[in-house]
Amino acid sequence: MVAGIHSSADARRIARRRLPWMVFDYIDGAAGREIGAARNRAAFDDLELRPRILRDVSDRSLAVPLFDQTAKVPFGISPMGMCNLSAPGADMMLARLAAREHVPLGVSTVASTAMEPLIEAAEGHAWFQLYFTGDGDGTFKLVERAKAAGYETIILTVDVPEVGRRPRELRHGFTMPFKIGPRQFLDFACHPRWSLTALAKGKPQMANFDMDGYEFDRTESRAKANWNTLAQLRDMWPGKLVVKGVLDAQDALMLRDAGVDAIQVSSHGSRQLDSAPPPITALADIRQAVGPDVPLFYDTGLRSGEDVVKAFQQGANFTFLGRILQFAIAAAGEEGLAALWDVLKTETSITIAQIGKTSLLDDPEN
């Protein structure tokens, strides 16, 4: 196994050793005291999967429907900002993985590679993630740019009216655009392997903000977004519209009635509100509220194939993986990413077999 990666925990352990403290804590950190992340993990751990025996599970498939296509595996790649901090070219590694596996690559508004080369490298398997910012003028410019680049799905992230306070990254003086001061210089000096490879490629930038008259400020308020904002986006966007960051069943019902194509249950990787309910628990509540026909996606806290199966058992139609993929890249580059992806596929397939199923599409009650 590449670089000793037998699980996502292995990838995280190696990444923690190799990345500067500032970069690791930016990727790994959560809001507040990080109690929310711990509660979500505990909620996952409390969920049980019941083994079933003497069923022919020799012919298994991980494929699941995703809108009008079929994904080869039941998980895609969450939109993540500044991925190239984990290693030079990380964004493109993820794009090539999406192309190979026929799964969506979430391209963040604050990606460190521009949206156009990413959808090209992903061979069309890319969705653009959108933040509403300020008065929305620049936001809708990005929508038009995504349309021109060939994107057919937009993910509107709605759980960041203000950027959550993440003490671990704040202690290191982490900012975007990326700034290097005395503290960061010392940090990098203590991690020469990363420094020599990453900084030699130049300071990472937020690559989607080269438009005239539009500069992105990560800390700028996004609090003006409301239901009229969603309606405006729905009217101007002809493709699929996913709303990400939903934890309340009533909000989910309103989104369904507003005509969105899918709802993504998420707490932003526990990076926004420390006191938010565990997303994996909210997923079951939202599925019960919206019924069986509304596509529900899930992210936050997925660490294994068993976690993916648990999310489907709670009502998800598809899942998205985040920081563990960056850890794999930090640990061993593109080979590390491929190794962890294979681990996750194997874990998912074995889990399906253990519970007596041949597919995640099987009736969860049987």
From TrEMBL:
The entry's keywords: Flavoprotein, FMN, Oxidoreductase
InterPro entries, per database record: Aldolase_TIM, Alpha-hydoxy_acid_DH_FMN, FMN-dep_DH, FMN_HAD
Transmembrane segments: none
Top-level taxonomic group: Bacteria
CDD domains for the chain: alpha_hydroxyacid_oxid_FMN (cd02809)
Key word Flavoprotein present: yes
MF terms in GO: FMN binding; L-lactate dehydrogenase (NAD+) activity
Domain FMN hydroxy acid dehydrogenase: 1-366
UniProt-annotated binding residues for glyoxylate: Y26, Y131, R166, H268, R271
Active site positions: H268 (proton acceptor)
Extent of the signal sequence: none
Residues annotated as binding FMN: 79-81, 108, 129, 157, 244, 266, 299-303, 322-323
GO biological process: aerobic respiration
PANTHER family hit by this protein: 2-HYDROXYACID OXIDASE 1 (PTHR10578:SF107), S -2-HYDROXY-ACID OXIDASE-RELATED (PTHR10578)
Name the UniProt record assigns to this protein: FMN-dependent alpha-hydroxy acid dehydrogenase
